[in-house]
């Protein structure tokens, strides 16, 4: 599914003698300039921007022609963030230009798409060692063409999977913990040992001294590495990096494939790639956000929390809870709801949420999640019967049994749950039971 949105660019992005001018399609006001200044490590920054653009134009599973070339850029207080998803939605990339990486002033805050076109990619590739790299995100002037020349206008198909990916990735990432940190020399050797393109196996990386070793089985302390060739995008920034960090959820013997984040840190920049649990799985279908969206108050809470979001580098859940008069669990559920419109992301290096400005549409959660729609229909039809130990859900001519496990998750006898075993979120029957029981939705702390 593609949600077509029209963006108007003032002109193509170019690398001029005085610096890099990225054309934006707008933000909280028409064509804002929310940053103007230099990037302090130009060659590294150019490599990082190329990496994010490369992910946006790649399909790692069943490669095909590029679907989108327009990463999302956010200016927030003291940093810039560039984000993209691969065409297959199985890789999420983010480049953070940190305070030490920028020499300029963020004069406004906003989020927009930037036009990273082939001429700009070629120009970034030519940035030399002493070449300055000046970044201007959104010029103040507006050039209107008459008979002397046209206004440059570009229509960009923005995949609906990107917004659904934003909604899922931040919920999954909130469960991650740092698992390994290795120096760049060892990181370079580790990445060079990885299987090449076309490898679809699921591997596990285990800390081993100053490096990591690969194994074919999940063991405690490991990080899942599915489709190892997807980390190839990191190579361009390796020469400038100091460390490679790996993040992931808790792994035990027998764990199913899991998502993970791999982050290169130069000191001024951080480039991270978050990989889906398996190469053929896109984040847009993971269902991690569904449980948090079943609460009766989640839409109203999201409206309230949305008005309280500020442009601090991180979102403090406890501060929001105090300001809103809500408990922390309801605030986290509200953040998940806002995440269905891409309004929040999660930074694993800081273990905290961050803010984007994208239009909030309370109805998007329903439209993008058929399981949620199906669950509400079951509840409205009175199809859920609770008993002392489980619940019965009648769906057409079929009858399913839903049970609650000690950790608060549900199991179901339906074919969908039997196939996925909870790895892709709850089924509609479990969601319907949760709604009927009025259970507090489980949201990662």
Give the CA-CA distance, first to last residue: 31 Å
Q: Which sheet architecture does the biggest sheet show?
A: 8 strands, antiparallel
Oligomer: single chain
- CATH architecture identity of the largest domain: Roll
Tell how many strands the DSSP assignment holds: 24
* Estimated structural class: alpha+beta
In terms of DSSP E residues, the strand content is: 25-35%
InterPro entries: DprA_WH (IPR041614), WH-like_DNA-bd_sf (IPR036388), Znf_SWIM (IPR007527)
Pfam family, one: WHD_DprA
Organism: Plantactinospora endophytica
Keywords: Metal-binding, Zinc, Zinc-finger
Description of the molecule:
Helix content is 26%, strand content 28%. The protein has 445 residues and is of the alpha+beta class. Helix 10 crosses helix 12. It is built from twelve helices and 24 strands. The two termini are 31 Å apart. The protein folds into four domains: 2-143, DNA Polymerase III, Chain A, domain 2 (Roll), CATH 3.10.150; 175-282, Roll (DNA Polymerase III, Chain A, domain 2); 288-368, Arc Repressor Mutant, subunit A (Orthogonal Bundle); 370-445, no CATH class. An eight-stranded antiparallel sheet has the order 9-5-6-7-18-17-16-12, sandwiched between helices. A five-stranded mixed sheet has the order 2-3-10-4-8. It has helices at 42-56, 118-125, 160-173, 184-193, 235-238, 298-308, 317-324, 328-339, 364-368, 370-380, 415-420, 428-437, and strands at 2-7, 14-16, 19-22, 35-39, 72-76, 79-85, 91-97, 102-105, 110-113, 134-137, 154-159, 177-183, 202-208, 211-215, 223-226, 243-248, 260-265, 269-275, 344-347, 352-355, 384-386, 391-395, 398-404, 410-412. It is globular.
């Amino acid at each position: 599914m593609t949600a077509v949105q029209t963006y108007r660019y003032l002109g193509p992005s170019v690398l001029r003698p005085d610096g890099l001018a990225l054309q934006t399609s707008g933000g909280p006001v028409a064509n804002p300039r929310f940053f103007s200044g230099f990037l302090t490590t130009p060659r590294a920054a150019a490599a990082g921007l190329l990496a994010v653009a490369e992910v946006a134009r790649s399909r790692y599973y069943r490669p095909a022609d590029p679907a989108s070339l327009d990463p999302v850029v956010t200016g927030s207080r003291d940093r810039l963030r560039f984000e993209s998803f691969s065409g297959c939605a199985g890789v999420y990339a983010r480049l953070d230009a940190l305070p030490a990486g920028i020499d300029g002033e963020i004069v406004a805050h906003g989020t927009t798409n930037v036009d990273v076109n082939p001429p700009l990619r070629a120009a970034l590739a030519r940035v030399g060692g002493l070449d300055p790299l000046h970044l201007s995100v959104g010029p103040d002037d507006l050039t209107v063409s008459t008979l002397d020349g046209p206004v440059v206008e570009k229509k960009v198909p923005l995949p609906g999977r990107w917004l659904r990916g934003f909604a899922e990735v931040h919920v999954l990432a909130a469960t991650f913990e740092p698992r390994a940190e290795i120096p760049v020399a060892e990181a370079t050797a580790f990445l060079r040992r990885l299987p090449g393109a076309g490898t679809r196996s699921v591997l596990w990386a285990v800390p081993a001294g100053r490096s990591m070793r690969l194994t074919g089985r999940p063991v405690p302390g490991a990080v899942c590495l599915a489709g190892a060739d997807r980390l190839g995008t990191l190579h361009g920034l390796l020469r400038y990096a100091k460390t490679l960090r790996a993040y992931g959820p808790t792994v035990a013997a027998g764990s199913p494939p899991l998502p993970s984040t791999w982050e290169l840190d130069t000191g001024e920049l951080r480039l991270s790639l978050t990989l889906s649990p398996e190469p053929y799985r896109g984040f847009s279908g993971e269902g991690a956000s569904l449980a948090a969206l079943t609460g009766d108050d989640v839409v109203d809470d999201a409206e309230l929390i949305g008005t309280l979001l500020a442009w601090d580098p991180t979102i403090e859940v406890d501060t929001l809870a105090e300001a809103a008069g809500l408990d922390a669990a309801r605030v986290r559920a509200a953040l998940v709801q806002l995440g269905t419109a891409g309004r929040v992301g999660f930074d694993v290096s800081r273990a905290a949420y961050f803010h984007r400005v994208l239009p909030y549409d309370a109805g998007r959660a329903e439209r993008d999640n058929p399981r949620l729609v199906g669950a509400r229909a079951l509840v409205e039809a009175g199809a859920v019967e609770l008993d002392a130990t489980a619940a019965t859900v009648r769906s057409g001519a079929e009858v399913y049994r839903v049970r609650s496990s000690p950790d608060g998750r549900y199991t179901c006898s339906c074919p969908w749950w039997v196939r996925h075993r909870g790895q892709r979120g709850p089924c509609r029957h479990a969601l319907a039971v949760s709604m009927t029981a009025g259970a507090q939705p489980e949201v990662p702390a």
